[in-house]
Write a structure and sequence with these properties.
The chain is mainly beta. The chain is built from four helices and 13 strands. The strands form two sheets. The protein has a seven-stranded antiparallel beta sheet. β9 and β10 form a beta hairpin. The relative contact order is 0.17.
Length: 216
């Protein structure tokens, strides 16, 4: 489990690619402070397991499912990546619940600067539109953000200066692809109210959630 608060930007030092898998060697420092073999580290929003490490880098394997379903296959030597260690039980919860299981790949279709913020439109597959909630949470390349707008094609986020400086999102351009993980709470709610093969015992419906103020 992660929070979507990027701890460090790492650099890809080496890549070993198979036909549908890969092994990444990532240079970094901060996330290695207490690292152990088997630890989970989010790399651009994808939960990976540390298979080996040194004082300056760690190695993680990317299985075929993650290779096909995320943007990790586009990485090359020198690429910069967002890194976050799994959430500590005694730490502050600054973002939102992030699992590190990417739902889909999004494409940046527009960017504009308004005052101190960069607004970014991201297009995603229509199958995931129902997981978006206005003013709700969304994870983009492992960064916890707020949904500021929803369209038929996707959603809009806004980067404040600190997010621009402390994550790779600040260097993204129109046409770039990003990993998107929708809010797990929204996914659970949708599953509850749309599951056809189980009769709800509480009468919970979308109308009930709206009337109760849980959804707009």
């Amino acid at each position: 489990m992660f929070t979507g608060i990027v701890e460090e930007i790492g650099t890809i030092h080496a890549i070993k690619k198979g036909s549908s898998s890969m092994q990444l060697t990532i240079q970094c420092s901060h996330v290695l402070a207490d690292v152990k073999k088997g630890d989970s580290i989010s790399v651009n929003g994808v939960c990976l397991t540390v298979s080996d490490f040194s004082k300056t880098e760690f190695i993680a394997d990317v299985m075929p499912e993650s290779f096909k379903a995320t943007t990790l296959f586009t990485l090359k030597s020198g690429s910069r990546v967002n890194l976050e260690r799994a959430m500590a039980a005694n730490g502050r919860f600054g973002g939102h619940f992030v699992t590190g299981h990417v739902d889909c790949i999004g494409e940046i279709t527009a960017m504009r600067t308004i005052e101190n913020a960069i607004y970014m439109d991201i297009q995603i597959d229509s199958a995931f539109q129902s997981h978006l909630v206005p003013k709700g949470s969304i994870t983009v390349d492992g960064t916890s953000l707020t949904v500021f707008g929803i369209s038929e094609q996707g959603f809009t986020i806004s980067l404040i200066p600190v997010t621009k400086a402390d994550s790779i999102l600040g260097s993204k351009r129109v046409g770039d692809y990003v990993n998107v993980e929708c809010d797990i709470l929204a996914k659970y709610l949708e599953r509850i109210v749309t599951k056809k093969d189980t009769k709800p015992s509480s009468g919970l419906t979308m109308d009930t959630l709206v009337k109760s103020g849980f959804l707009d």
